[in-house]
Amino acid sequence: MHIEQTMDTKKITIIIVAILGVGALIAGFFVYGLFLRKPETPPVTLTMWAPEPESYYAGMFTRLKEAYPFVTMTYRAFTDAAQYERALLDALAAGQGPDIFTVANNDLPRKLNKLFPLPATMYTAERLQAEFPDTVLRDFTKNGTIYALPLYIDTLALVYNRDLLNEEGIAIPPSTWEEVQDMAGELAKYDDNGLVRAGIALGGSHNIAHMKEIISALMFQNGAEMVNEGYSDAKFASLEGTNAFSFYMQFARPSSAAYAWNDALGFSRDVFAAGRAAMVIETAEGKELIARKSPFLNAGVAPLPQVDGQKATYAVYRGLAVSRQSKNSRTAWGVVLAFATNPAYAESYLGASGRPPALRALVNKYLNDPAFGVFARQALIGRAWAEPDPERVTEIFADMAGKGLIGADAFATLKAAQDAVTSLMQTR
What we know:
- The protein has two domains: 44-152 and 317-373, 3-Layer(aba) Sandwich (D-Maltodextrin-Binding Protein, domain 2); 155-315 and 388-426, Periplasmic binding protein-like II (D-Maltodextrin-Binding Protein, domain 2), CATH 3.40.190.
- The chain has 18 helices and 15 strands.
- It has helices spanning 2-36, 58-67, 81-93, 108-111, 125-131, 134-140, 162-167, 177-187, 211-221, 239-249, 268-273, 284-293, 329-341, 343-353, 360-365, 373-378, 390-405, 410-426, and strands at residues 44-50, 71-77, 100-104, 141-142, 145-146, 149-150, 154-155, 157-161, 189-191, 194-197, 279-282, 299-303, 313-316, 318-322, 382-383.
- The strands form five sheets. Strands 2-1-3-14-6 form a five-stranded mixed beta sheet.
- Helix 2 links the parallel strand 1 (44-50) and strand 2 (71-77).
- The longest helix has 35 residues, at 2-36.
C-alpha cells in the first residue's frame, strides 16, 4: 500500500513538472516575441511647404500613405513666391520651419546652412547624374553632397504667335539669334505714335518676364562665366558677357535695325497675350499663364534660339530639400527620394502641375509630346548659376538693363553690375 502511494505521488509529480515545463516554454516564447521581435515603425508626421497648390501633390500623398502608412504629410501652400520666402526664413529663424521645403535652383548658396544633406548611404551623386540632367548636379550639389532633388525642370523657350508669323509669310520660327534679328524688325508694327506691335519682347528692364534669366542664357551661349570657381567673385563683365548684353539691348534701342520692343508697351507676358507681340521668351509655366489669359491665342513654342557657340538655355525650377531642423531627417529624405526618383510619383506631379519632367527616364518619354516636348529636350541643355540673393540680383540686372536703355556704356554698366553681385557674394 505504501509503495502504491509512492508510485502515485511520483506520477503526480512528473505530471506537475511537465505542465510547469510546458508553461515555462510558452512563457519563454511570449517573452521572446515581446522583446526580440522587430518593433512596429512608430508613426511620423512630416510638414512640407512650397509655393504651389496642394493639388499638385495630392496624388503623391495618397500613394505615399498606401506604401508607407506610418508617414503622415501635412502641407502648407503659398500662392506668392516672395511671401513663401519671407515666411520660410522667419520660421527657420524661429526654429519652427517645416521638415521639407522647396529651394529654387539658383538659390542654394543662401539656403545651404539651413539644409540637411542627403546621406550618401541613401543616394549618391553618381546616381543623381545618371538619373537627372546635368544642371541638377551643378545646381543642387556642393563638393559631391546633394542638398535637393527636383520634380520638374522648366526652361526658357521661344513662344510665338502663329497668326502674326503667317501674316508676314514666316513659315518656320527662328532657331538662331541671327534669324531673330532679321525677323523682329519685319514683325514690328508702327503708327504715328511709334511702335504698337513688338516683333519680340526683348531688350527691356523690369517689364520683361525672366529678364535676368534671358540675359544669363545669352551669356552662357556666348561662353561667359558668371562666377569664379571658388565662388568669391562674379565674372560676367568680360568680352563674352558684354557682347551678350549688347545683343540683348539692341531690341529696345530705336537706333538699332533690330528695334522691336518698347518698355511703354507694358509687361511682356501681357503684351503677347493681347496679340501685341509676335514673339516672347517664356517658360512652360509662363506659356500656360498666357494660355489661361488668352485661351484662343494661336501660340506655338520652339526651342530657345542659339548662337554658334555652346548650346544652352536657362533652367528655372525648384527642388525638394530637408531642413537641418527636422527631427526626422532620414524619413524626410526617404519621402523626397520616393517623390523625385520614382517615375510613378514624379509623373503624378507632372500630370497635376502641367510642368515638364526632371527624371531622364521621363524626359525621354516626353521628347515628342506636343505640350512638353520642347521643354523636355531643353532640360538636357539647361543651365543656371548660383546667386547669392536671387531677388537682389534681379534688381541689379534690371538696373543694368535700365542703364542700357538710356545708352550707357555696355562694359562699364556690366562691370558695375558685376561688382554689385560680387559684394553680395562676399557679404553673404
